[in-house]
Amino acid sequence: MVWEDTDEIQVNYPGMFELMEDLKGMGESNCSWNRKALLHRDTMLAAAAVYREMYRNEDGSIPATYQIYHMIGWKYHDSQARPAERGSATVSFGELAKLNDVVSQGKKE
Question: Where in the chain are the domains?
Answer without folding.
Answer: 1-109
